[in-house]
Amino acid sequence: MGTGLENAFIQNIQDHRGVILKVCRIYSDDRDDFDDLFQEIILQLWKSYSSFRGESLVSTWMYRVALNTAITSLRKRKRRPDQHPLQAFHHNQAEVTDNRVDRVYAQELQRAIQALNKFDRALLMLYLEEKSYGEMAQILDISENYIGVKLTRIRNKLKELLTP
Protein backbone atom coordinates (compact mmCIF):
# COMPACT_ATOMS: atom_id res chain seq x y z
CA MET A 1 0.00 0.00 0.00
CA GLY A 2 1.37 3.41 -0.95
CA THR A 3 1.75 6.44 1.23
CA GLY A 4 -0.78 9.24 1.27
CA LEU A 5 1.49 11.34 -0.94
CA GLU A 6 1.85 8.52 -3.48
CA ASN A 7 -1.90 7.87 -3.51
CA ALA A 8 -2.67 11.57 -4.00
CA PHE A 9 -0.12 11.74 -6.83
CA ILE A 10 -1.59 8.71 -8.58
CA GLN A 11 -5.09 10.12 -8.23
CA ASN A 12 -4.01 13.48 -9.69
CA ILE A 13 -2.33 11.72 -12.62
CA GLN A 14 -5.51 9.74 -13.27
CA ASP A 15 -7.71 12.83 -12.96
CA HIS A 16 -5.56 14.99 -15.26
CA ARG A 17 -4.05 12.40 -17.61
CA GLY A 18 -5.48 14.30 -20.58
CA VAL A 19 -3.15 17.22 -19.85
CA ILE A 20 -0.13 14.97 -20.24
CA LEU A 21 -1.49 13.22 -23.33
CA LYS A 22 -2.15 16.52 -25.12
CA VAL A 23 1.34 17.82 -24.42
CA CYS A 24 2.80 14.53 -25.66
CA ARG A 25 0.71 14.64 -28.85
CA ILE A 26 1.84 18.14 -29.73
CA TYR A 27 5.52 17.67 -28.91
CA SER A 28 6.09 14.14 -30.28
CA ASP A 29 7.18 13.17 -33.77
CA ASP A 30 6.29 9.49 -33.49
CA ARG A 31 5.03 6.82 -31.10
CA ASP A 32 8.44 6.21 -29.54
CA ASP A 33 8.91 9.93 -28.80
CA PHE A 34 5.36 10.03 -27.42
CA ASP A 35 6.00 7.13 -25.04
CA ASP A 36 9.37 8.49 -23.93
CA LEU A 37 7.94 11.95 -23.34
CA PHE A 38 4.96 10.59 -21.41
CA GLN A 39 7.27 8.69 -19.07
CA GLU A 40 9.59 11.66 -18.64
CA ILE A 41 6.68 13.96 -17.78
CA ILE A 42 5.39 11.51 -15.17
CA LEU A 43 8.89 11.30 -13.68
CA GLN A 44 9.27 15.09 -13.55
CA LEU A 45 5.80 15.48 -12.04
CA TRP A 46 6.71 12.97 -9.32
CA LYS A 47 10.07 14.66 -8.63
CA SER A 48 8.38 18.02 -8.16
CA TYR A 49 5.15 16.81 -6.54
CA SER A 50 6.30 17.31 -2.95
CA SER A 51 7.12 20.96 -3.72
CA PHE A 52 3.66 21.71 -5.22
CA ARG A 53 2.25 24.35 -2.87
CA GLY A 54 -1.32 24.41 -4.11
CA GLU A 55 -1.17 28.08 -5.10
CA SER A 56 -2.66 27.16 -8.48
CA LEU A 57 -4.88 24.39 -9.78
CA VAL A 58 -3.26 20.97 -10.01
CA SER A 59 -3.98 20.96 -13.76
CA THR A 60 -2.20 24.32 -14.16
CA TRP A 61 0.86 23.03 -12.30
CA MET A 62 0.81 19.83 -14.37
CA TYR A 63 0.67 21.84 -17.62
CA ARG A 64 3.72 23.87 -16.57
CA VAL A 65 5.75 20.81 -15.66
CA ALA A 66 4.62 18.93 -18.78
CA LEU A 67 5.40 21.86 -21.10
CA ASN A 68 8.81 22.47 -19.55
CA THR A 69 9.63 18.76 -19.82
CA ALA A 70 8.41 18.63 -23.44
CA ILE A 71 10.45 21.68 -24.43
CA THR A 72 13.57 20.21 -22.82
CA SER A 73 12.93 16.90 -24.58
CA LEU A 74 12.42 18.68 -27.91
CA ARG A 75 15.79 20.41 -27.53
CA LYS A 76 17.47 17.06 -26.89
CA ARG A 77 15.75 15.43 -29.89
CA LYS A 78 16.82 18.26 -32.19
CA ARG A 79 20.42 17.35 -31.37
CA ARG A 80 19.85 13.72 -32.43
CA PRO A 81 20.63 12.75 -36.02
CA ASP A 82 17.57 12.37 -38.25
CA GLN A 83 16.19 8.91 -38.91
CA HIS A 84 17.28 7.08 -42.01
CA PRO A 85 15.32 8.25 -45.12
CA LEU A 86 14.08 4.72 -45.88
CA GLN A 87 12.64 4.45 -42.38
CA ALA A 88 10.78 7.72 -42.89
CA PHE A 89 9.49 6.52 -46.28
CA HIS A 90 8.33 3.20 -44.83
CA HIS A 91 6.65 4.98 -41.90
CA ASN A 92 4.83 7.39 -44.24
CA GLN A 93 3.66 4.58 -46.55
CA ALA A 94 2.21 2.67 -43.60
CA GLU A 95 -0.07 5.62 -42.81
CA VAL A 96 -1.89 5.66 -46.16
CA THR A 97 -5.55 4.74 -45.61
CA ASP A 98 -8.95 5.00 -47.29
CA ASN A 99 -9.63 8.42 -45.83
CA ARG A 100 -6.47 9.80 -47.40
CA VAL A 101 -7.76 13.35 -47.87
CA ASP A 102 -8.50 13.73 -44.16
CA ARG A 103 -5.13 12.24 -43.29
CA VAL A 104 -3.30 14.52 -45.71
CA TYR A 105 -5.00 17.58 -44.24
CA ALA A 106 -4.31 16.37 -40.70
CA GLN A 107 -0.65 15.84 -41.61
CA GLU A 108 -0.43 19.29 -43.17
CA LEU A 109 -1.99 20.79 -40.07
CA GLN A 110 0.39 18.83 -37.84
CA ARG A 111 3.37 20.04 -39.90
CA ALA A 112 2.11 23.62 -39.69
CA ILE A 113 1.76 23.32 -35.91
CA GLN A 114 5.24 21.79 -35.67
CA ALA A 115 6.57 24.75 -37.67
CA LEU A 116 5.42 27.10 -34.91
CA ASN A 117 7.91 27.92 -32.20
CA LYS A 118 7.59 26.02 -28.93
CA PHE A 119 5.89 28.89 -27.10
CA ASP A 120 3.24 29.28 -29.82
CA ARG A 121 2.60 25.51 -29.81
CA ALA A 122 2.12 25.57 -26.05
CA LEU A 123 -0.28 28.51 -26.28
CA LEU A 124 -2.22 26.88 -29.13
CA MET A 125 -2.55 23.68 -27.12
CA LEU A 126 -3.96 25.58 -24.14
CA TYR A 127 -6.34 27.46 -26.43
CA LEU A 128 -7.58 24.21 -27.97
CA GLU A 129 -8.00 22.86 -24.45
CA GLU A 130 -10.41 25.82 -23.98
CA LYS A 131 -8.46 27.29 -21.09
CA SER A 132 -9.42 30.82 -20.12
CA TYR A 133 -7.06 33.69 -20.89
CA GLY A 134 -6.38 33.89 -17.15
CA GLU A 135 -5.40 30.22 -16.96
CA MET A 136 -3.24 30.48 -20.08
CA ALA A 137 -1.52 33.58 -18.68
CA GLN A 138 -0.81 31.83 -15.39
CA ILE A 139 0.52 28.65 -17.02
CA LEU A 140 2.75 30.52 -19.48
CA ASP A 141 3.62 33.37 -17.10
CA ILE A 142 2.55 36.17 -19.46
CA SER A 143 -0.18 38.83 -19.39
CA GLU A 144 -3.75 38.13 -20.48
CA ASN A 145 -3.54 40.93 -23.06
CA TYR A 146 -0.51 39.30 -24.66
CA ILE A 147 -2.48 36.04 -24.95
CA GLY A 148 -4.93 37.68 -27.36
CA VAL A 149 -2.16 39.26 -29.42
CA LYS A 150 -0.25 35.97 -29.68
CA LEU A 151 -3.36 33.95 -30.60
CA THR A 152 -4.11 36.34 -33.47
CA ARG A 153 -0.54 36.01 -34.72
CA ILE A 154 -0.68 32.22 -34.42
CA ARG A 155 -3.94 32.06 -36.42
CA ASN A 156 -2.41 34.22 -39.14
CA LYS A 157 0.76 32.12 -39.22
CA LEU A 158 -1.24 28.88 -39.52
CA LYS A 159 -3.33 30.37 -42.35
CA GLU A 160 -0.14 31.38 -44.12
CA LEU A 161 1.40 27.92 -43.67
CA LEU A 162 -1.74 26.11 -44.84
CA THR A 163 -2.51 28.30 -47.86
CA PRO A 164 -1.13 26.80 -51.08
Automatic annotation (TrEMBL):
Source superkingdom: Bacteria
GO molecular function: DNA binding; sigma factor activity
Keyword annotations: Sigma factor, Transcription, Transcription regulation
Keyword Transcription regulation assigned: yes
Domain RNA polymerase sigma-70 region, chain residue ranges per copy: 13-80
GO BP term, example: DNA-templated transcription initiation
Gene3D superfamilies: 1.10.1740.10, Winged helix-like DNA-binding domain superfamily/Winged helix DNA-binding domain (1.10.10.10)
Residue ranges annotated for the RNA polymerase sigma factor 70 region 4 type domain, each copy included: 107-158
Family indicated by similarity: Belongs to the sigma-70 factor family. ECF subfamily.
The protein, known as: Sigma-70 family RNA polymerase sigma factor
Source species: Dawidia cretensis
